[in-house]
Amino acid sequence: MNRSQISQIKAVIRVKRHLKLANKFSGGFIKFDKTSGKIAKVSKKTEIIAKAYVIFQFVVIIVKIWSITAKTGNLIEKILGIAITSLSTTVFLLRYHTTSAQVQVQFLNYIFFSEGDENDGKSKFFLTYLVLFFDALEFSYYSTCAAHWLMVMFFTCQPGLASSILCSTDEVFSYGTIVKSVFVLVESYAFLQASVATGYHLVTVLLTGVIFLWIECGDFIQRHQMEIAHQIEYRRVQALEKLLNACTREQIFLKTAMLIPTCQMMTSFVAVKMTHLGHDLIAVALMWLYLMTLAFTLLTFSAAAKLYGVSQKWITDCKGTGRKKYARKFQRSLRPLRLEFGNNFVEVLTPLVV
């Protein structure tokens, strides 16, 4: 067993763990089935519970919005409240999807459990980064949940927090510790549950898919240059690309491209504000979240752009090399690999928000 295979096994272990976390917090619609040894859809009962939590999170966000519109306060508090609510709303929108999970099941089973050619040593580095990102992501779940918990504890009457609806005009929460603790638990758990579900869509499906597609493309080009792979095998890489786009194009990646920049800006603003208020622990947790979203953006978009550029260069180099008519016709039909979001796709010149 080479190092690349070991790295892939570690990646599979992380995916299983995060699927288990998503099911534990009722944030996902797929699971790892120990009986079949593959990824499968959750039961109908679990799916209903997960949908119920979506409604629960939606209600929490409505209350947050109400807390901003109903209360009168200074401009800074309003802006901070809007930022906090925007962050929660962004996470909710990223986790909310109406597409079927069956395509995601097929895709994840294909990249992890289908038999294929052995990857070279270079793929080990990509998979190692993916494993580290999964570990950092799990830490982010709990650190941001703790930050949310601390915000409700110390800023109970801050607009943008559900607890502020029970505060008096003098910004005094007079309903006791028990009621306050209930708000702490509700808001923290709602954010944690939404974060776990969002992490599944963005990292387990999107980022993992992009990295494996990049590895598959790189391996094919290397084998073709060594003359142990025919050009027709490029269709296999294209099939993986189509499957990934079927999972992410309409909702996951489209929402990512639209909402992640908002998440980064809101997170950094709230973190800076917490620093000014002297709550460094909350600020550190939020800055960690900012760095995670930044790292995710750079990894995903850079890998997708690199994928497009590498495949385009290979196609350009191949054109004109075929001597027979059918070979030239096949080469003209080739197109670069594209990671699509909506009607657009990522290329080298796609701008990033940092």
Summarize the structure in words.
Keywords: Membrane, Transmembrane, Transmembrane helix. With about 350 residues, the protein is mainly α. The chain is about 70% helix and about 5% strand. The protein has a two-stranded antiparallel ribbon with strand order 1-2. It has a two-stranded antiparallel sheet with strand order 3-4. Strand 3 and strand 4 (about 345) form a beta hairpin. Helix 3 packs across helix 6.
Summarize the structure in short.
The protein has helices at 3-24, 44-70, 75-95, 102-113, 122-154, 176-225, 234-248, 252-276, 280-318, 325-333; strands at 30-33, 38-41, 340-341, 344-345. With 354 residues, the protein is mainly alpha-helical.
Which structural traits does this protein have?
two-stranded antiparallel ribbon; elongated; mainly alpha; 354 residues
Summarize the helices and strands and which ones pair or pack.
Layout: H1 3-24, E1 30-33, E2 38-41, H2 44-70, H3 75-95, H4 102-113, H5 122-154, H6 176-225, H7 234-248, H8 252-276, H9 280-318, H10 325-333, E3 340-341, E4 344-345
Antiparallel strand pairs: 1-2, 3-4
Helix pairs in contact: 1-5, 1-6, 2-3, 2-6, 3-6, 3-8, 4-7, 5-6, 5-9, 6-7, 6-9, 8-9
Structural category is mainly alpha
The coarse silhouette is: elongated
Q: Report the major sheet.
A: 2 strands, antiparallel
Distance between the termini: 39 Å
Summed up, the domain count is 1
The total beta strand count reads 4
Uncertain residue segments: none
Residue share in helix? over 70%
Lateral strand order in the biggest sheet: 1-2
Rg on CA atoms, Å: 23 Å
- The proportion of residues in beta strands is under 5%
Question: Which whole number gives the mean pLDDT?
Answer: 83
Return the string of H and E elements: HEEHHHHHHHHHEE
Note the total helix count: 10
Keywords: Membrane, Transmembrane, Transmembrane helix
Transmembrane segments: 48-69, 75-94, 125-142, 198-215, 252-275, 281-305
Protein name: Gustatory receptor
Organism: Folsomia candida (Springtail)
